[in-house]
Amino acid sequence: MSEAAPEVSLFDHDTLIDPYAAYKTLRDRAPVQFEPAFGAYVVTRYDLVRQAIRDTATYSSEFGDFLNAAGKILFAQAPEDVQQKVMELNDQMIDIPPTMLTLDEPEHTKYRSLVAKLFIGSEVRKSEPTVQQVVERNIEGLAAAPEDDGELAADFISAFAFPVPLKIIADRLGIPEEDRAFFDEAATSAASALKLSPLAPDQMVHRAQLALDLQKLLVSLVEARRREPAEDMITILANSHLEDEDRLLTHGEALSVLNQFLVAGHETTSSAFGWGMLLLCRNPGLQESIRGDAARIRTFVEEALRMEAPVQGLPRLVTQDTELGGVPLQAGSLIMLRFGAANRDERQFEDPDQVRIDRKKAGMQLAFGSGVHHCIGAPLARQELNLGFAALLERFEDFRLADGADPEAEPSFILRNLPTLPICYRLRRASST
Prior knowledge:
The protein has about 425 residues and is α+β, with helices and mostly antiparallel strands.
């Protein structure tokens, strides 16, 4: 906030695609910097991000109004006829109350505790055979890809990184097979809404229609599971009681929790798979150094999450006059905690821009947040990533970028993903298995 503050905007197109040089400038010169385009203070240093995460009394997670305001800004840019169509669709939708992501204690725990039992170690281990089966099915697809002189080629995102987590979350939720094609499109659209990226008018209407139809599907499944319970997450939500109120969840509450699982269980894991494969392609020596070594693969997964956090940042609402990093903050201000910047802070991580398989405490990265809002699905995401990369390296070798490929992130302020990742690879030789 001084004259020495750097002229850095995280909303520049090139910075949205590759923010890491800007992050370093901010960490070094203005780790708590006001961003006029966003109306918030951007926090980029690891210790300050972690401090704010843990001080939930001062930095509230009740930032739902921000997300709504951002959506309204994009909506206001659409032609009037498109706005009218979108409003007609929105009027038919069930209102979504805040539950886990945008609530503080004790209300946050009231909802989180309903599903927490799904994520304890014993429950996660039960799902391993199913996850392995989905992974292997998509590996067979990679193995059947077009071949040229023994080398296969595929777009890793569409062939593996995207369908594997989507299939797994659909299985865990209990989406019927006949609804899977629609669910895949609608769930992807729901996650994409968090990218806060401009949409063409026809896309805006289509997204609103998908959102309405997805609500209808999920509500019908909640009601069906109340009549006939099954072994899935929708059943647990449909039949869970809020003990202090002695009632089932409303449809809006159930939809709120399910929507969060769609993003956490699909979009972020898909992104991590994509960035992890890009790291393998750009660092060929990694492939041999971690192949067949579960401990090293675990560290690699943490490093991939650290270097390219799928959720680059989330807001917090300042509840009282305070200061952070020497910068005064007034009650009612908004701060944006940049996990992607904190994860490359050299004050916390030696050689932060390099994959270090020997890194100690690699799990200290903040891709899944920290404290009471630590991502509840992190054990499941780690399971998918560890099993997935282990299987990929067991079946294939010599991963590299396809000739002429120059993959780059989709410009987004919140989520970070690779739309495509053209790669070449070979089946592992019999002598090396």
